[in-house]
Amino acid sequence: MESIQILWLNRSFTPQSAGVKTHTHPYYHFFIMAAGTLAVTVENVTRTVSGGSALLVPKTARHSYLNNDAETAECIEIKFTLQNPGLESRLTEGGGAAYSDDPAILLLGEKIAEEFVSLGPNADEAARSYLAAILQIMARPKRTRSATPSYIDTTGCSDLTKQVVSYLEAHYGEQFSLEDLAKELSYNKTYLCTAFRRDTKATIMDCLNLIRIRHAAGMISYSELSIAEVARACGFGTASHFNHVFQHVIGTTPSAVRKAYPNHILPAGEGRNKEKISHPDRLLYNVLAGEEIPLRTWPFRR
To answer: pTM (2 decimals)?
Structure first.
């Protein structure tokens, strides 16, 4: 976990025309708005922070705030120190304060306040864990998506193929056409499909189905979702289409996989004996072991 020390936490209520004058301090000041609005000025730049949004003031930054509205502003204020150069760099990239309106932040902020009120034996550790999660949410827009796919091994493939696979991995649960994909990547559809097949010996739909079935196999093995729910979550329009593609790729039905690979199977490295998995199938073994699927050597056609 990031090295975080919470110095002070307060649920403040700021009436109309009230606020705090410009000041500075050597630690972070977090404003998580529960209700109302505050005009927070950081280094002469003013940002309106309303209910449900959050603003993180960097350490040593000059800042003040004022309630210009009739409604009393309710805010969870947290002052803390952080020792994580990488995370700090993302949070302060571009200078000024970091802003987010992600609803998860208010929920986590309420949990932090709750822990501080409860003062249980593990309250401080729990509150720091919640704050660490909030900071990762705040830094998320500053993180760049990796061009390297996560589930498909594209070693030796072209940059275009990696772009396609990365998009498919990110959107496998959605309904989209090859035209939509080509437009998103700014390529002609025919060129995109031809280049992908020339590079991989597989079609884009082959790869999409492989990614969808890879996720589906994991859900069937480990989740409590019904087969129909798995089909929908993995982007299949109908259960019958899902069953057909699943059997084509895996060689057996989703129901048979659920019986053969119960959700109590341990992942690799936690005591699971790989040789004791009955009826081993390469893709299912891949799913359970958490390995990447080699795109260029996988037999799409059974």
So the answer is: 0.53
